[in-house]
Amino acid sequence: MNMELEELKLNHNFDEFKSFIKDKKVAVVGIGVSNRPLIKKLIKLGAKVIACDKKSDLGEFEYELQRLGVKLSLGQNYLESVEECDVVFRTPSLRPDNEFLQRAEKKGAYITSEIQEFLKYCRAKVFGVTGSDGKTTTTTLIAEILKEDGKNVYVGGNIGTPLFDRLDEIKEDDYVVVELSSFQLMDCRYSPLVSVITNLSPNHLDVHKDMDEYINSKKNIFLHQNKDGIVVLNRDNYITYSLRKEAKGSVRMFSINDEGAFSHLKGEDLIVDGNRICSIDEVKLPGMHNIENLLTAFAAVYGYASIESMRKVVLNFTGVEHRIEFVREVKGVKFYNDSIASSPTRTIAGLKSFKQKVILIAGGYDKKIPFDELASEGVERIKVLVLMGNTKKKIREAFEREMRKKNINLPIIEADSFEDAIYGAYNMAETGDIITLSPACASFDMFKNFEERGNRFKDIVMNIK
């Protein structure tokens, strides 16, 4: 890497980035939602941008890019253009060890990402949240508490809007809360001031080489902090608890089991650093996993927001869309949308939120993770199991093994389509039953993302006669 690039890595003044990027040939790989504002910002700063995407057609946005003077590299060989660039912005879904990226780096290119450059140059106090489950709710809770306390708050990363193009407007006394995925963190060399890991369990093993790589990616959220950093970790999750010794700054544990943790559950009360915030009965959010999410948020914002602000949010916050979201009651049958549940552990948490057995709709894209724990925890919490998507056989096999072991008979239905799964569940339901879409899998075999899956679920349910 040349000296100019080395100096850039050490400088955290955004004006220096502006000077550096002017007239540089910059490849932006992946023309998704987060990178579109990035492209426009780079053009404004005088960069010569090449937009690279494996799609051969970007629709109307393709014409907009051409009007901006952006060169396009689309289709099967879309990555060939990165080798001729000075700077490459990697999309989170492209592994950092991709051969084209490595060749470009050997030629002197600076390989980075939208979120890395944001973390590097952001002047505000940044709170970062990652983990296998609970990220979005925890991110939202942190942001809501800070807003309630009168702070000017930006929310981004995996939720909210992309923030790199807003670096000029974000001030030093502002607050930023970002949700970060393992893909975004894989090669990240900058960490937020306050870094949260909600929990860790097997996930995304269709992309990561193994569990160790997945954990190492998540650790980057705090590994690059200094002594002033704060790390919030789950005392009840053995993987996150084991990471405490690697923190350079202070560590705050949260727990529903250990009253010695920084934020914890004491009887029916939620406590942070000795201060009672509320009781479980006052929490609007369903399920013990949401008690954990609240304790996580309290530990993160403590010292930045008042106890009163934390309490006000508890009393008024009813949840985030697609997270055990009540949709409708039809002839005594209640429908819940938990489309965010793209892992077995998240589905288990959802099942535990209900006080009765439910009719579960599960299945989807295969992330190469096991379903044994889902079967073990779920077999006695499910009245009927309706399976769909690429993983329906795999999930069925896990449940059948568990049923033999426990001598339990659980009706299992395999559906040929998403709509068939919903109507199949409804046809099996009786008055008083609960039907929940909590797939334990990603949505990519049928939908663009979990939001599209959840919205389609709600559309179908709203049209049931």
Averaged pLDDT? 92
Q: CATH H level of the largest domain: which superfamily? A: Mur-like, catalytic domain
Largest beta-sheet characterization: 9 strands, mixed
Beta-strand portion reads 15-25%
Radius of gyration: 23 Å
Number of domains: 3
Characterization of the model:
- It is built from 17 helices and 20 strands.
- By secondary structure, the chain is α/β, with parallel strands linked by helices.
- The protein has three domains: 110 residues, Rossmann fold, CATH 3.40.50; 201 residues, Mur-like, catalytic domain (UDP-N-acetylmuramoyl-L-alanine:D-glutamate ligase, 3-Layer(aba) Sandwich), CATH 3.40.1190.10; 138 residues, Protein-Tyrosine Phosphatase, Chain A.
- Helix 5 links the parallel strand 4 and strand 5.
Strand and helix layout:
Blueprint: H1 3-10, H2 14-21, E1 25-29, H3 35-44, E2 48-53, H4 60-67, E3 71-74, E4 87-89, H5 99-106, E5 110-112, H6 114-121, E6 125-130, H7 135-148, E7 153-157, E8 175-179, H8 182-185, E9 194-197, H9 211-223, E10 230-234, H10 238-242, E11 250-255, E12 263-266, E13 269-272, E14 275-279, H11 288-301, H12 307-316, E15 325-330, E16 333-337, H13 344-353, E17 358-362, H14 372-378, E18 382-387, H15 392-406, E19 412-414, H16 418-428, E20 434-437, H17 450-462
Key structural traits:
465 residues; alpha/beta; Rossmann fold; UDP-N-acetylmuramoyl-L-alanine:D-glutamate ligase; Protein-Tyrosine Phosphatase, Chain A; 3 domains; 17 helices; disordered N terminus; cell shape; UDP-N-acetylmuramoylalanine--D-glutamate ligase
